[in-house]
Structure formats: structure tokens, C-alpha cells
Specification:
globular, alpha/beta, seven-stranded mixed beta sheet, oxidoreductase, six-stranded mixed beta sheet, 23 helices, 4Fe-4S, single chain, binds iron/sulfur cluster
């Protein structure tokens, strides 16, 4: 981290971490980023959190891969046995020509001998929009199927499923900054102070202006200090609690009849369904007093303008889609969509998870959520791509691909920027699968846990080394600009994709990401009126943009929805219990998530000096009373065991955690949270239940 304020030049780009998408000014000295300032982007208005301000130096870390690597013939069996500081024990350096030939050759051989479906692809929300688009195009065009996915499957897939089903679009209906026009806001199943810190500053300011903040979460998250109501409900009881709130709105006739009549369908079925969810009956299940449920219902339904924000506490359940359906219904019945200060906002996790999803990096949708099962949609793409048809069958998701490897069908993979050997649920199962692959190509900036299983590793660019657009949680398409050059022989990701495609017989011929963006626009209406040049000049444009000079619409659906007859839909949600009930062997509840200083699997933030210094050690949090009962002091090591596995980890005391819960961050490989997590998935979004596993907690002898 620089201690001097002098620099050679400065470049404006986008923070590479969370979905807030803060705009930054990178100060460059001697070819390195010295320090970072926030600038006046539409989302951040000059603000940055600790990750954006201090977490940049991972790009200069000595672990960066600077040359293509090919697995040595005498390497040990595949596993987490590669030291990222010294990968040459398992890999040998190669020229780009050789590495690309071996990478593509292995994929082509499987395709030609075993069929296209023997290859699957994981892209990443760390990709730019152009890289994500090229990745899904490569799998679809090069292998003829849709077995391509990315980390949205582990994040907001269930929210997107519910939003597309009920409002006709998978993105937010209003930017988070719209909270400045709200008088009431619900923040449920998320912890913005740690996970979307700059968004959280707007939420805090909203309360300082007198806005009423209702926080709902099984953990007493930091925003509770600013809330008028903190509903610390029982884990997994979201649907019971939300249906009880809606029951009050129905019983007390607080709903917006005019809005419901004009803009929705299926209201009578929803109303009928909610009769069975009285606050008295649901209080027992969700652990919230009936009067509190009533207060919240009256407050929300009576607001002039109200927003609902949610995160993975809602989505990462086997009933994640039902959780989101409830939030959508709550907003619809109260008429809280499509006006200033009103709307639905799932806070997106990674800096480009919105954009990568928009760009079609998902197995059931082509770009702009156009379904792969529609012949007309597919032919529109093959016309632009100038190649034959690809499968009309929806592809496999992240966890399904892992199972497909175990079943012996998927035999080779191309993984770009994703780290499923850390991020997948029941991760030992996933690691065993990657070890079985006959050919694995990994494109990344470090030898990640996933790259340890690779046959070929292609050295890629960090975000501050590349050009490309990204789309944040607010639907703001923003321009990322290169500030420094990639180290050694590392290359831009789009270039690597183009070179691989060429060796798979696809002559794409792009010479710049702007050409990819221009192609994306041909079949993505969401990008109408947004051009590369506009993004270069303006920095950000929100979609939809209604004219070449419109900065974009912060609020959508003020006059109907992109659904039949322009009407949004109520989809009643029933209570589905979590997949694993605590029992005598596993009596507590494990929930996983992020911490302020670390991001996802830690490959970047644990290589950032400041962030790693602040949060250097794997840890989990339990209520102090729980620790006392066990005879454990904060700082002692404990053992966590679920039906999948066991880890040892340092215990912390946190009064915000319920007494029967453990909170476990997933950034630490030495105590990998996902060794423990349950791979059971939501049937619609296919998202795993990271937020609820039955766990046993034991004191270690040395404790
Ligand atoms: Fe980066 Fe998110 Fe922090 Fe903004 S809030 S600086 S985008 S990590």
C-alpha cells in the first residue's frame, strides 16, 4: 500500500469485488497501482469500503501466474497438493502456442470421440460482460449444448427464477440509491455492512433522515443498530414469517386494491392461500411475536414508498425461490414497485454477477434471459454467430455438472475465473469430481484450489489489467479500463478465449472487446441505446436506456411488467422445511457467508496485505453463552462436523448469533466451510442450501 500521494498517472475503473460496482480512480506509479480513491460513480458517489480502498495489491502478488503451465507427466495424483508459490513441482512452463494447443486439443479430442456433452464450462462473475458472452458462446457453439454455468448458481439463481416468473425480469426494479426516496425499507437475509458496505452507507443515511428500517435475519446483523424493527427469526422460517406479515395485510385490508387490479394476476389465489398463515400460528414457527409481525405489516403496507432488499439469506435455501416469491408478493400487494423510493432489490454479490447472467452464462438462458428451448431465439443467435444449431435442451447447472462428472458423462472442463474446488457445496465431492476429469483447462490469475486439478493453466488478467464492461446490482453498465499491464506473459481473458476457440474450429476474428460488445447488442435488447463509445465517455449507463442520451432508468415497471398483459403475478408459497433437521447427532445449525475483509473464496483478498492483516485466520462465530456451556474461550479451536465432513477452526464470540447457530465464513481453505455444507438444492433456481446444515460443535482437547 502506497505511503506517498505522488503518482505517474491515474485511471478510472470499477472495484473488482462486490456487486455495488463502486467507481475508482487508480493512482499508478512505476507501473503499479499505488493507491485507490473513490470517484463519483452513480452507485458509490465517491465512497469506497475497505476492500475497494485497500484490497487492490493482490494484482502485484508474487503468486501471480506469469507463464502458461502444463501438468507434468510425473506429477502426483491430482489434488490440493500444489503450492501456489511453487507450482513447478506439478506443472511445467510452456509457450502460449503449446499451452493453447494442448488445452484446446484435449477438449477437441473428447468432443470428437465422446461427443460435445463430454465437455462442460464454468465461467465467472469476475469476467467482464464481453468475456462472459464469449465463454457461453464458446461452449454452445463449440460443443453444441448448454452445459455452461457460473457462480450465480451459488448466489441469486433462486431470486432470478422468482423475479422472471413473477415480474418478467431477473434484475432489480429500482437502484439501491432509490432508498433516498423511501420512507420504509425491509432488509432481509443480508448483511450489507459487511457484504455491500457502500450500499449500507446509503441505508444508514436513510435512517438518519427518519426512514424506518426493518431488518430481518436469523443473525443480528450490524444494520440492526439503525433499525426500528429487528426480526431475528428462526433459520429457515422465512416463508412462515413473510406469509404471516402478508396475512395481516390481507386480514386488515391494508393492500393496494387499485394497484392489484391494474397490474397483477392471481391475487385471489394468493389471498386464499394466506388465510392459513395467521401471526399467532406462524409465531411459534418463526419465533417472532404476533404483534411485531402486525406492526411490520402495517408499517410496510402503509408506507408512501417502500423498498425490499435481500441477499443470500433468502436465496441459499431449498425454498429460496419461495422466499423470493413472498417478497415479490409483499411488494405487489402493497403497490410498492415502479415509483420513486419503491421497488425490489436483490443485492447482487459479485462485481459482474448481474452482467455475466445477462450475457447468458447460464444453462437455461441465452443472453438477455432468452430461453434456449425457443427455436426462434436459438436461430437468432446462430444467425449472428454464423454457425449451425446447438441443443434446445436446458443445460446442467454447477452442482449437476459435478454429479455428471461422477456419473462418467462429463469428462473435460474449461473453467475461467471460478473456484468451485472451494465454492461448491459438499466440496470434497466436487474436488473428487475434478480429480476424475480427463482434461481440465483452468484460466485464472493464481493457482487456485481448482487450478490444482488442472491439466493446463492459462495465466489471465486481473480486473485492473483489462478492458471491458461490467454490470452492477443497479443494472448500471460500467466501463472497466486497464490501469497496469498483466505480469509476465499473462494475457487478457478475451484474447485467450478467442485463441482457444480458434483451435476448436471457431474463427471468431475479434480484435478488441468493443467488437464483442457490438455483437452482444444485436440480440440483447437490454443494451439498446448503450454503446461502447457512450460507456467510454460517460463511464456508466443504466439499462434500460430509452434514447442515445438517456442515462438510463433507475426505476422500472411503473406502467406494467414484461409479462402477458403487462401484469405481474402472485405465486403463493408454502412452507418447506430445511433439508436437514438438527438432531441428537448434529444438534446445531450451521450457516455460511462472507466477512467484510474477505471476498468469496479468498483467492484475491487473502493476498491483499491490509485485508489479510485485519482478518488473517479462519474463524467461526457462536453466541458467548454457547461457548461458555461448552467450556470454550474465544480464540480456542473447536471442531465442526456435519454429515459431509469435519473441520477444526478458531471460535469467536458474537452476541448477534442465535444460541443454536454457528456462522462460518467460506474464504479460508485451511478450514473450508464447504466441506460441511449441504448440496441439496432449490428445485427452481437449483441453488444449494448454504444457509442451513445440521452441525455438531465440539471442544478440541487442546482447547
Ligand atoms: Fe468495492 Fe463493493 Fe466495497 Fe464498493 S462496496 S468498494 S464495490 S467491495
Amino acid at each position: 500500500v502506497g505511503d506517498s500521494r505522488d503518482f505517474d498517472n491515474e485511471v478510472e475503473s470499477i472495484c473488482p469485488f462486490c456487486g455495488v460496482g463502486c467507481q475508482v480512480s487508480l493512482k499508478i506509479k512505476d507501473g503499479k497501482v499505488k493507491y485507490v480513491d473513490g470517484i463519483n460513480g452513480p452507485a458509490n458517489e465517491g465512497r469506497l469500503c475497505v476492500k475497494g480502498r485497500f484490497g487492490f495489491d493482490y494484482i502485484h502478488h508474487p503468486h501471480r501466474i506469469t507463464k502458461p503451465l502444463i501438468r507434468r507427466e510425473d506429477a502426483q495424483a491430482k489434488g490440493l497438493n500444489v503450492d501456489p508459490a511453487n507450482p513447478l513441482t506439478h506443472f511445467r512452463e510452456a509457450t502460449w502456442e503449446e499451452a493453447l494447443d494442448v488445452a484446446a486439443g484435449g477438449l477437441a479430442k473428447l468432443r470428437d470421440t465422446q461427443g460435445g456433452k463430454s465437455i462442460a464450462g464454468f465461467g465467472s462473475a469476475k469476467c467482464t460482460n464481453e468475456e462472459a458472452y464469449l465463454f457461453q458462446k464458446l461452449i454452445r457453439q463449440g460443443f453444441g449444448h448448454n452445459n455452461v454455468d457460473h457462480c450465480t448458481r451459488l448466489c441469486h439463481a433462486s431470486s432470478v427464477a422468482a423475479l422472471i416468473e413473477n415480474v418478467g425480469s431477473g434484475a432489480v426494479t429500482a437502484t439501491f440509491n432509490e432508498i433516498e426516496n423511501s420512507d420504509v425499507a425491509i432488509v432481509i437475509g443480508c448483511n450489507p455492512i459487511e457484504n455491500h458496505p457502500v450500499a449500507a452507507t446509503f441505508f444508514k443515511q436513510f435512517t438518519k433522515r427518519g426512514g424506518k428500517l426493518i431488518v430481518m435475519d436469523p443473525r443480528g446483523v450490524g444494520l440492526r443498530r439503525f433499525a426500528t424493527h429487528m426480526l431475528q427469526f428462526r433459520p429457515g422460517a422465512d416463508v412462515s414469517m413473510l406469509n404471516a406479515i402478508m396475512n395481516v395485510i390481507v386480514e386488515e385490508e391494508l393492500y393496494d386494491k387499485q394497484y392489484i387490479d391494474a397490474y397483477t394476476e392471481n391475487w385471489e389465489a394468493e389471498k386464499e392461500h394466506l388465510k392459513g398463515f395467521s401471526p399467532e400460528a406462524m409465531s411459534e414457527i418463526c419465533g417472532i411475536e404476533p404483534e411485531v409481525l402486525r406492526d411490520v405489516a402495517r408499517l410496510f403496507a402503509g408506507a408512501n414508498a417502500a423498498m425490499i432488499f435481500w441477499g443470500m439469506g433468502i436465496s441459499q435455501h431449498i425454498h429460496g425461490t419461495d422466499n423470493s416469491r413472498c417478497l415479490i408478493s409483499l411488494a405487489l400487494m402493497s403497490g410498492q414497485i415502479g415509483r420513486p423510493g419503491a421497488g425490489l432489490h436483490p443485492l447482487r454479490g459479485q462485481n459482474n454477477v448481474q452482467g455475466a447472467s445477462d450475457a447468458g452464462l447460464i444453462p437455461m438462458f441465452l443472453p438477455d434471459y432468452q430461453t434456449v428451448t425457443d427455436d426462434g431465439v436459438r436461430s437468432a443467435f446462430t444467425e449472428v454467430w454464423k454457425s449451425g444449431d446447438f441443443s434446445a435442451e436446458k443445460g446442467l447447472t454447477v452442482t449437476e455438472i459435478v454429479d455428471d462428472i461422477h456419473a462418467g458423462n462429463t469428462r473435460g472442463m474449461y473453467i475461467l475465473g471460478e473456484n468451485p474446488a472451494m465454492s461448491d457445496p459438499d466440496v470434497e465431492h466436487a474436488r473428487d469430481a475434478f480429480a476424475k476429469l480427463e482434461h481440465l483447462v483452468v484460466q485464472d490469475i493464481f493457482v487456485t484450489e481448482t487450478a490444482c486439478f488442472a491439466d493446463v493453466i492459462l495465466p489471465a488478467s486481473a480486473f485492473y489489467e483489462k478492458s471491458g464492461t461490467v454490470t452492477n446490482t443497479n443494472r448500471q453498465v460500467q466501463m472497466g479500463r486497464p490501469a497496469v499491464t498483466p505480469p509476465g506473459e499473462a494475457k487478457q481473458d478475451w484474447w485467450i478465449e478467442v485463441e482457444l476457440a480458434k483451435r476448436l474450429g471457431l474463427d471468431w476474428g475479434y480484435t478488441d472487446p468493443s467488437e464483442v460488445f457490438a455483437e452482444m447488442k444485436l440480440n440483447m435488447k437490454s443494451l439498446d441505446n448503450i454503446t461502447w463509445d457512450r460507456l467510454v465517455n460517460e463511464g456508466a449507463v443504466t439499462y434500460p436506456s430509452l434514447s442515445p442520451t438517456d442515462p438510463g432508468q433507475a426505476i422500472v415497471f411503473g406502467d406494467g411488467f414484461p409479462r402477458p398483459d403487462g401484469r405481474a403475478k402472485f405465486t403463493p408459497a408454502s412452507v418447506i422445511a430445511p433439508d436437514e433437521a438438527p438432531d441428537a447427532d448434529y444438534p446445531m445449525i450451521l450457516t455460511t457467508g462472507r466477512q467484510l475483509e474477505h471476498w468469496h473464496t479468498g483467492s484475491m483478498t487473502r493476498r491483499s496485505k491490509v485485508l489479510d492483516a485485519v482478518e488473517p485466520e479462519a474463524n467461526c462465530s457462536l453466541h458467548p453463552k454457547t461457548l461458555r456451556t461448552m467450556g470454550v474461550e474465544p480464540g480456542d479451536m473447536i471442531r465442526l462436523t456435519t454429515r459431509r465432513g469435519s473441520i477444526e477452526i478458531m471460535a469467536r464470540a458474537d452476541r448477534a448469533i442465535a444460541e443454536d447457530m454457528v456462522f462460518l465464513p467460506f474464504a479460508f481453505v485451511e478450514a473450508a466451510a464447504n466441506i460441511l455444507t449441504n448440496p441439496a438444492v432449490d428445485p427452481y433456481g437449483k441453488i444449494p442450501e448454504f444457509k442451513f446444515s445440521a452441525v455438531r460443535v465440539e471442544k478440541q482437547d487442546s482447547a
